[in-house]
Amino acid sequence: MSQAGPELPEVNVSEHDGIRYLHLGSEWIQGSMRIAAPDEIDLEYVQRMMAWLLFVDPASVAQRHAMQLGLGAAALTKFCRRRLRMQTTAIELNPQVVAACRTYFKLPPDDARLSVVLGDAAEVAAHAHWQGRIDALQVDLYDEEAAAPVLDSEGFYADCRRLLTGDGCMTVNLFGRSSSYAASLERIAAAFGPEAVWAFKPTREGNTVVLALRTPQTPGRPELQARADAVESRWGLPARKWLKVLRRIG
């Protein structure tokens, strides 16, 4: 595929054993799609980015607005738009990533419920236009080497919090071979308050997904179990397993 631009990495696609992978100028996987099931979420950590569903009424999901900062292989965008039938907005800096998702990863064209925007995630997060309008904010922003989050400051996370509705939730992937998970978690807790932050144990691949709620919630175990049962039965996500590896940090 062609070079995206002088400052943007080359976008490549590979396939192995029925799975298509997205790469940004390196061997590191930036997203995937099971070819036989293009609307399902293949990677475990990406499934966990949907754990905000544990904190809302399942019946209200289709009336909510999801935003992805970083399109990747469009797994989250497709799932929110097609499976959850949500209003969905994705922000992506690299136009070649968008082209690859539309060509190779079954990302549908924009319509009344889907908008894919070419733009800078930091600028979008800071813009007043989106403040208080996003129910599920999914942040997965990495460079081509997958070494550390591109945006990881307390100020950025504070902007993310301002995007959320009163019961909105941010999920963020903190995988990074040279990044400090503890430092990133501290910045999120400073922006949201530690009582509003929940964290998964790392996946086998080292991805650690963190949830941060606009308004702290302390649901009891029976309530979380009921939500997990509903999520798993309605949408096929492994939500019951999530409860074994998800804890509030504050």
Automatic annotation (TrEMBL):
The keyword Oxidoreductase does not apply. Transmembrane segments: none annotated. It comes from Ramlibacter rhizophilus. It comes from the Bacteria. This is Spermidine synthase. Keywords: Polyamine biosynthesis. InterPro entries: SAM-dependent_MTases_sf (IPR029063). Pfam families: Spermine_synth. PANTHER family: THERMOSPERMINE SYNTHASE ACAULIS5. GO terms for biological process: polyamine biosynthetic process.
